[in-house]
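Q: Given only this backbone (464 positions), what sequence would you predict?
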C-alpha cells in the first residue's frame, strides 16, 4: 500500500480493521515524515514521539488480541497548543508562557484518548489565538506547504494544525475558531475545516480568547473525516455549562443524501467587491456545480454587511481578551508578539457599556439574519478574500477573516472545503454556512460537493 500518511482517516481505519496496517507503522510513518519536513514546516511546538510510539505499540497489541475499542483506535492526531494536557506545557502561542504547565486536561483531549487515538504533538498557534494570518513573531510561523519557495500565510490562528494536516504529517487535527481560525487554515492549506456552533464541543481545558465566540473544531482532509471527529467531540460536559441543553447532532443519516431540493443562498453581490478574481471564479464554479446536482441557488439580500458584523465581533473579542490578559499585555517587559499585543490592548478602550451594547446588538442581528435567510438550508461564500499571500506582504493591521468572522458573531456553523486552485497552484476554498446547531446540513452539502470533485485529494508540493 502507499504511505499511510496520504490516506484519509476513514481509509486508515478500514486498513487497521482489515489487518493490513498497524498503528505502529502508521505512527512511525507520521513521525518519520515530521522529522524530515518539520525543520521547514514548523507545524509543531512539541512532538510527543516517545509517548506516541508507546501508545501505538499498546494499540497494536490490543487490536491484535481482539480488544479494539472502536474505529479510531490507533489513529494519530495533532492538537492545537491551546488544549491543555495535565503535566505538559501549554503555551497558548506566547513565549511569556513557555514554562506554563497545565494543571488540568481538556475534555476534548480525554475524548480523543478514550477513543484510543494517539496524540502526535502540540501544534503552533498565533499568540493567544488572536490572528487570522497565522504568524507568530516569538515562536515561529509555520510554512504553508503549497509553496516551497515563498513563505506564505498558513492561516490562523490554528496555523500549525492546518499545516500539519495539509502537509500530510498528521491525518487530522484539532483547531479552535473565534473568527475563522479553523476555516482560514483549512482554506489556505487545501483541506477541510468545520466551525462548530457554541456549546457543541466543550471548551473546558481549552485556553480561552473570547468565551462568547470560541469554538473547537476538526481540521481534516475530507468531509467524512470531519463528520467522524465532530461526532466524537460533541456532547454535554458538566465542566462547560454552555454544552447543556443541546441534543447531539447525528450527521450520518443525511450525509449522503445529496443536495437535490435544498435551497442555498448565494454570495451577496454587495460583498463581491475586493474579492480576488480567481477566488470568485472558483466560487462561481462551485455554485454552478451544486446547482447541477439539484440545489436551488437563491439570491439573498442580507440586512448587514459582513464587514460590519465582523467589526462588532472584533470588539467583543478584544474586550474579552483584554479582561483575561490585561496584566500581561500592559506589561512592556512581557515577551509578547508585538503584532498581537495591540489587538488585545484595544479592549482597554471598550467600556462596559460598549461591550454590553455589542452583545445586545448581536442578539438583534441574529434575529434579523434568521428572518432574512428563512427557508434557506445554507448560504455559500468563499472562505477567504484571497489565496495565501507572502508573509512579507501581510498588513498586520488587517484581518483575513472578512468572510468568516460574521459566522461566529451570529452563532452559526460553517464548513470550509477546497474548491479549486489559482493559476499559480494555491488552494481556494468554499464556505458553507448553516444555521446554528445544524452541522449535519453543512456536512451534507460539503459531502455532496466533495463527492463530485477531487480538489481535496490534491497534494501540496512539500508533502511529496
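A: Predicted residues:
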Amino acid at each position: 500500500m502507499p504511505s499511510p500518511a496520504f490516506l484519509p482517516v476513514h481509509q486508515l481505519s478500514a486498513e487497521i480493521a482489515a489487518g493490513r496496517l498497524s498503528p505502529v507503522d502508521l505512527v512511525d510513518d507520521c513521525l518519520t515524515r515530521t522529522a524530515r519536513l518539520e525543520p521547514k514546516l514548523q507545524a509543531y511546538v512539541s512532538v510527543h514521539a516517545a509517548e506516541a510510539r508507546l501508545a501505538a505499540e499498546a494499540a497494536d497489541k490490543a487490536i491484535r488480541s481482539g480488544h479494539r475499542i472502536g474505529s479510531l483506535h490507533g489513529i494519530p492526531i495533532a492538537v492545537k497548543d491551546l488544549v491543555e494536557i495535565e503535566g505538559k506545557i501549554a503555551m497558548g502561542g506566547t513565549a511569556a508562557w513557555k514554562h506554563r504547565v497545565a494543571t488540568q486536561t481538556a475534555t476534548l483531549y480525554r475524548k480523543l484518548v478514550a477513543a484510543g487515538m494517539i496524540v502526535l504533538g502540540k501544534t503552533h498557534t498565533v499568540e493567544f489565538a488572536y490572528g487570522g494570518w497565522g504568524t507568530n513573531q516569538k515562536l515561529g510561523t509555520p510554512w504553508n506547504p503549497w509553496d516551497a519557495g515563498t513563505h506564505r500565510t498558513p492561516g490562523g490562528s490554528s496555523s500549525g494544525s492546518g499545516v500539519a494536516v495539509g502537509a500530510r504529517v498528521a491525518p487530522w487535527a484539532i483547531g479552535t475558531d473565534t473568527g475563522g481560525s479553523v476555516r482560514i487554515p483549512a482554506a489556505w492549506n487545501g483541506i477541510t475545516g468545520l466551525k462548530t456552533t457554541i456549546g457543541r464541543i466543550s471548551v473546558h481545558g481549552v485556553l480561552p480568547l473570547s468565551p462568547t465566540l470560541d469554538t473547537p473544531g476538526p481540521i481534516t482532509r475530507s468531509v467524512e473525516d470531519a463528520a467522524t471527529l465532530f461526532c466524537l467531540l460533541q456532547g454535554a460536559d458538566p465542566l462547560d455549562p454552555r454544552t447543556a441543553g443541546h441534543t447531539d447532532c447525528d450527521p450520518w443519516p443525511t450525509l449522503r443524501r445529496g443536495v437535490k431540493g435544498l435551497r442555498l443562498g448565494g454570495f451577496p453581490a454587495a460583498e463581491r467587491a475586493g474579492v480576488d478574481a480567481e477566488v470568485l471564479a472558483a466560487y462561481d464554479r462551485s455554485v454552478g456545480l451544486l446547482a447541477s446536482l439539484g440545489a436551488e441557488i437563491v439570491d439573498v439580500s442580507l440586512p448587514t454587511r459582513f464587514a460590519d458584523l465582523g467589526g462588532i465581533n472584533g470588539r467583543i473579542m478584544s474586550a474579552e481578551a483584554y479582561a483575561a490578559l490585561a496584566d500581561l499585555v500592559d506589561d512592556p517587559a512581557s515577551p509578547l508578539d508585538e503584532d498581537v499585543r495591540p489587538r488585545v490592548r484595544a479592549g482597554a478602550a471598550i467600556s462596559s457599556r460598549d461591550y454590553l451594547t455589542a452583545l445586545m446588538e448581536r442578539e438583534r442581528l441574529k434575529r434579523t439574519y434568521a428572518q432574512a435567510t428563512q427557508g434557506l438550508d445554507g448560504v455559500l461564500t468563499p472562505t477567504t478574500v484571497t489565496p495565501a499571500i507572502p508573509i512579507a506582504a501581510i498588513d498586520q493591521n488587517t484581518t483575513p477573516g472578512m468572510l468568516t468572522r460574521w459566522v461566529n458573531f451570529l452563532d452559526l456553523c460553517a464548513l470550509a472545503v477546497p474548491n479549486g486552485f489559482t493559476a499559480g497552484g494555491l488552494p481556494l476554498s468554499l464556505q458553507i454556512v448553516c444555521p446554528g446547531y445544524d452541522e449535519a446540513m453543512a456536512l451534507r452539502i460539503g459531502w455532496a460537493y466533495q463527492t463530485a470533485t477531487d480538489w481535496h485529494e490534491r497534494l501540496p508540493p512539500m508533502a511529496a
